Amino acid sequence: EELTVIRKFEHIEHCLKKEVEAHVSAQFENIHFVHMSLPEIDKEEIDLSVEFLGRKFDYPIMIAGMTGGTKGSQLAGKINKTLAKAAQELNIPMGVGSQRAMIRKPETWESYYVRDVAPDVFLVGNLGAPQFSETMPNRYGIEEAIKAVETIQADALAFHMNPLQESVQPEGDTQYRGVLNALAELKSEFPYPIIAKETGAGVSKEVAVKLESIGIDAVDVGGLGGTSWSGVEYYRAKDERSKNLALKFWDWGIPTALSVAEVRYATDLPIISTGGIRDGIQIAKALALGANLAGVALPLLKPAAKGDVEGVIKVLERYINELRNAMFLVGAKNVVELRKVPLVVTGFAREWLEQRIELWEFLRERR
Ligand code: FNR
C-alpha cells in the first residue's frame, strides 16, 4: 500500500504544477440569468446562508475533498489544516481526500485530522466506491466506513465514484460490480449521512435516481469542466498506450451545469455542484439550477499547499462577492429566491437538456 501513498502525492504534485483542467467547459456559459433593472432589494440585505444536512452555513460553498495520507513531506496535513482554518473562519463545510491510505496505514491519520483547528466545521470523510465492490479482495464494509468518520471526528462520509480515473490508470481499481448494493447495505446501518460524490465526470439522472432510492443523503455531481482526473493520470502514465488512453478520455463526462439540472429534475436529493466552479456567477447559476452548495477544489490547492489561510479565504471571498452581486442583479435576497428567478438555456446546454429532461417544464417549475 506504499503505492497508494505515493500515488496520492503524485496527484497533488501534478495538480500544483501542470494544466489538469478539462478542455471543455462546465456549461455555465450557456445558462443565462435575465438582468433585472428593478431588483427591489438592497444589496446589503442579501442573505447567503443555507441549510444542508441539518446544518446551517454562512455561504453556499463547500471546500471539496482533496488529500490526506501522502508520503513523508507533511504536505497533505498542511493542506487539510489550511483549508480547515479557512472553512472554520467562513463557516462553510469541507471534505478531506480519500482515506484509503489511512485505513491501510493508520499512522497517517493526523494528515486528515483538522478538529484541533476547526472545532465547528462540518467535516466530510472520504472513501472510494471500488473498495466496496463485491469483486474487491478485502472489500470494505461498515467497519472501515465508521473508522473513516470517527478517527477524524467527521460529520458525514463521502463515497467517491471515480470509474473514469480508475479506468485510465494502469493500476486502477476497475471493480465496480455490486457497489450500489454495498452502498445500500452500508446506508441501512451507518449512523452518519452519506454523500455520493463523483470526481469530475458528472452524475446522470439515472444514477441519481438509484442513489435516492437507497436513501443516500446527498449527491455531489462532481461534473466535467474543472479538474480532469484523466488529465492527471495522463501526466502519471509511463507508456504510450496509457498516455493515449488518458488523453482520449481527458474530456469525458457530463458537464457540471447539466449534471445539476439532470439530478434536480429527477430527484429531491440535496446537490453539491462541484467541477469547474471558478467564480461567483457560476455559483449563482448552479444554485439557480437547483444545487444546494457549490464545491471548489483546484483553485484552493495552491494557497493551501503554501499554508496560506488568507490566500484560501481571499479566493472564496471573491466568489462570495460575485455571488452576492449576481443575486442583487436578479433581485434574489436569499438562496431560496435565487432558485425561482428566470433562466435561459442556450446552445450545447439546451441541446443536451432537451434530450435528457423536460426542459421547459423544468425551467418553469424549478424549486
Ligand atoms: C481531488 N478530488 C478528490 N475527490 C475525492 O472524492 N477524493 C479524493 O481523494 C480527491 N482528491 C483530489 C485531489 C486533488 C489535488 C484535487 C484537485 C481534487 C476531486 C475534487 O473533490 C473535485 O471533485 C474535483 O477536483 C472537481 O473540482 P474542481 O477541482 O474542478 O474545483
Question: If you had to describe this structure to a student in words, what would you say it looks like?
Answer:
- This protein is 43% helix and 12% strand.
- By secondary structure, the chain is of the alpha/beta class.
- An eight-stranded parallel β-sheet has the order 4-11-10-9-8-7-6-5.
- Helix 7 (205-213) crosses helix 10 (256-266) and helix 10 runs parallel beside helix 15.
- 52% of the residues are buried.
- The site of ligand FNR has 26 residues, from helix 1, strand 7 and helix 12.
In short:
This protein is α/β, with parallel strands linked by helices. Helices cover 43% and strands 12% of the residues.
N-to-C order of helices and strands: HEEEEHEHEHEHHEHEHHHEHEHHHEHH
Question: Over all CA atoms, what is the radius of gyration?
Answer: 19 Å
Show unreliable segments: none
Question: In DSSP terms, counting alpha (H) and pi (I) runs of 4 or more, how many helices?
Answer: 16
> Can you summarize the main beta sheet?
8 strands, parallel
- What is the beta-strand fraction? 5-15%
Percent in helix: 40-55%
Structural class, from helix and strand content? alpha/beta
Shape: globular
**Span between N and C termini?**
46 Å
Write out the strand line-up for the largest beta sheet, numbering strands in chain order. Answer: 4-11-10-9-8-7-6-5
